[in-house]
Design goal:
two-stranded antiparallel ribbon, monooxygenase activity (chains A, B), homodimer, 39% helix, alpha/beta, TIM Barrel, binds flavin mononucleotide, globular, 12% strand, Diverse_substr_monoxygenases (chains A, B), 8-stranded parallel β-barrel, oxidoreductase (chains A, B)
Chain lengths: 457, 457
């Protein structure tokens, strides 16, 4: 069996993951909507042999202007729509996986199934779908609602949504299109499967009007930490994008999610758990620290307070240098608890808390030499806390290029990371299960049984 | 004033517009889902200085398997999703416009506004949206419904849908993103407009999370021939994709739609009416005719009947070589009437009728020398029947390459067609009105009035 190796993704949200990324001296003048910027980022990821480049997404601005005046001091405003952007980036890359976030809350499964299938064809089998539920009321208001639906409704809909999408991806068998110009037969009719889904949220007839894709089915990524989120991941995901700060928390999460998989008859190896990791390498620890500090100093206090307000409510009535109070208006998000844990654990002031999350937003942060960062990865990787990492560069593209040029070679030296892509598709590179075609298999089993039966007569 | 010139688009649906296109000897073996095929098609359109390449779309298979066994003898089954495909094609072209169809019937305006805005950014201002209402029950069944909603509901929703999308495209003023790294101001808050739309179909708060696009707003194309469709076009479209067979019909349509524009305070010149035109050039008339005949002979009778069934209901109980009966199950579509008119006008048999629409599907068909085709265009162009044409190549890419290599030079010789692109954006090339930003203008007027007022004090 091949040696187990670390999987790497990169989150390429805008100009970087850090709140002040857009104020970095190297940040492109055109901001979040400069196409060459994203070309450079994905090409760097591919040069670094990353499994995938990952686009978070919201169907609306997801940052409260609270305290007022904060929003215009952030770059949390505009961005490319992920499916269109990744389709464009597919044309300037050859191997790196392309993962887009699409919400199950305000979408229709038929549209989502089509778009990801289409991206999988365009990219030659490199598409992935990060399945999320939309949690903010700000997004709800763009879709005929005042408030986001509650947890159970959102996750119930999400589970059915994924089921419908996977069903639609099985509309056509792999080898159904014979396209015989002479006889005039374009496809073999027995290889077309009509889904006819009738569920509480969705009634979807099908078939999908996109052929079976190069990967069979795009990779499914799940990002959600609650009980419902974990169950959805155990049932259907190939990758989990997780958030944990400590080894113990990550181990508990890893054990819990992998443990749930048996219920679905799945091999735990077929779900890659990849926590977010803000990695800030420098040739020396001091250089790394200085780089990070330069960004930290650019966090406007208004923006820091707003970053907290998004999870804990507005704390601007409290002393910035006093303790973090019991949150006045805590929001429905697993990260609210992570932030409170950070504050309690470190006994932090409000200012210290927002500075501590300005970079990683609740994800793990490692600042140091390439060896320090490789050590940090290796520890979690070898101690059942992670199968890989979703790298969150504080600024882009420099923060990613540093990881590619400094950390990747160190991981390779240790035999922890590939030195060439293993396959052509994202599934192959990740080493997750090939997509099965349950309907085709059932049809073929039935045909074989019928043939054996008639032979026995 | 610049000389009025013919506008050209090309419909690049699958392997060509003709029912038997996929059986053409040159049709790519990979069928409708081969990316290099579409690269070649759009690059040919750009070489021919076409205004735009156009993708029709359905949110489901839109072809009845009636009589049974017909569907698998067509290529009306799978295709790329248009927004993803055009985003990819934007990377391998520089000037040609990229127009995708998106239905207003089963979509949300926020999603549609985002995707087209994103494509406009990716392509540097070359995006267009073909606004349609989804008419088939087959599509309805993919979206929790049994049947498509009736005309009035569909068009009522479509009109409000377009209004919301255009409003969302005005979320940000052009020069709002100052991105001042020193002061920490990312955008000027007064340049952000919150739509807050409250209508019968949609309640959409906004703002859009995509910046104002290079074109200001993607070009709006409308394809719909009913009274409601014409009104929508007169109110909001930059281009109409029409269908007419005779000069008189085209003139009546042209006059009617342009006549409706005054009601909306619009200049008739700012709406380009582009009927579909299946053009089949050959070096001689005989060669052209032979090319077309070779395809006609590949129309399976089952497929021919099915093509009729989609509009008139199943005629397979009748004699193929007998007259066209009163249709048993006529569908809600303006093209049903066009087909009946064709049959009555020519006194056609069922076989003759399906053969007469197998190519152009109700659009005008011209087979001949480059001069014949240029004559046919010139006539309509000069006699108030068309501002340009949406070319429907019977097969692709050859059928388009023939037009580019033979007909375009003839049009240029006559001074009827550009010899170089006029501008960078689709709007500039089409010569339609620049997109205004009504909210920005209102704000600036108010600010100026306030300044004058205080100066006068
Ligand atoms: C690591 C991580 C990344 C996420 N990325 C997105 C995203 O890009 N877009 C989005 O709308 N929601 C995103 N979510 C939100 C989840 O889908 C979910 O709504 C939210 O986490 C609340 O559910 P939970 O308590 O199960 O985590 C993300 C969540 C996590 C934990
Ligand atoms: C030339 C033309 C092209 C059209 N293209 C599409 C298309 O690509 N997808 C679609 O769903 N409907 C398409 N339609 C359908 C229209 O949006 C509309 O639903 C249909 O024509 C019925 O309305 P009408 O009677 O106003 O034409 C097209 C219609 C016309 C006339």
């Amino acid at each position: 069996m091949a040696k187990r190796r670390i999987r790497l993704g990169v989150s390429m949200i805008g100009l970087g993951y850090h709140l002040a990324a857009w104020r970095h001296p190297d940040a492109p003048a055109g901001g979040n909507m400069e196409l060459p910027h994203f070309v450079r980022v994905t090409q760097a990821a591919e040069r670094g042999l990353f499994d995938m480049a990952f686009l978070a997404d919201g169907v609306g601005i997801r940052f409260h202007d609270e305290p007022k005046g904060a929003l215009c001091r952030t770059s949390k405003n505009v961005q490319f729509e992920p499916l269109t952007l990744l389709s464009a980036l597919a044309m300037v890359t050859r191997r790196v996986g392309l993962v887009a976030t699409a919400s199950t809350t305000y979408n229709e499964p038929y549209h989502v199934a089509r778009k990801f299938a289409s991206l999988d064809h365009i990219s030659g089998g490199r598409a992935g779908w990060n399945v999320v539920t939309s949690v903010t009321d700000m997004e709800a208001r763009n879709f005929n609602r005042d408030k986001a639906p509650g947890y159970d409704v959102r996750y119930d809909r999400a589970a059915e949504f994924v089921e419908v999408v996977r069903g639609l991806w099985e509309s056509w068998e792999d080898d159904v299109f014979v396209r015989d110009k002479e006889s005039g037969i374009n496809y073999r009719p027995e290889g077309l499967h009509v889904l006819d889904h009738q569920g509480p949220h969705f009634q979807v007839k099908g078939p999908l009007n996109v052929a079976r894709t190069p990967q069979g089915a795009p990779v499914i990524v799940q990002a959600g930490a609650s009980d419902q989120g974990r169950e959805l991941a155990a049932a259907t995901a190939d990758v989990v994008y997780a958030a944990a700060q400590t080894l113990a928390d990550a181990q508990a999460y890893y054990r819990d999610v992998k443990g749930r998989m048996a219920r679905y008859g799945r091999d735990p190896d077929h779900l890659k758990i990849m926590p977010g990791l803000m990695a800030v390498p420098g040739r020396t620890r001091q250089e790394a620290q200085d780089r990070y500090e330069a960004l930290q100093q650019r966090v406007d206090p208004l923006v820091g307070l707003a970053a907290l307000a998004n999870y804990l409510g507005d704390l601007s009535g409290y002393d910035l240098d006093g303790p973090v109070p019991e949150p006045p208006n805590r929001r429905m998000h697993s990260r609210a608890q992570i932030f409170l844990d950070i504050a309690r654990r470190g006994n932090l002031t409000i200012r210290q808390l927002y500075l501590s999350i300005a970079g990683g937003n609740g994800h793990r942060l490692v600042i140091g030499t390439p060896a320090d960062i490789a050590d940090a990865m290796e520890e979690w990787f070898h101690q059942d806390a992670a199968d890989g990492f979703n790298i969150l560069p504080p600024w882009l593209p420099g923060g990613l290029e540093d990881v590619v040029d400094m950390v990747v070679p160190e991981l390779q030296r240790r035999g922890l990371f590939r030195t060439a892509y293993e396959g052509m598709t994202l599934r192959e590179n990740l080493g997750v299960a090939p997509a099965t075609h349950r309907r085709a298999e059932a049809r073929k089993r039935a045909a074989m049984a019928a043939a054996l039966g008639s032979a026995a007569q």
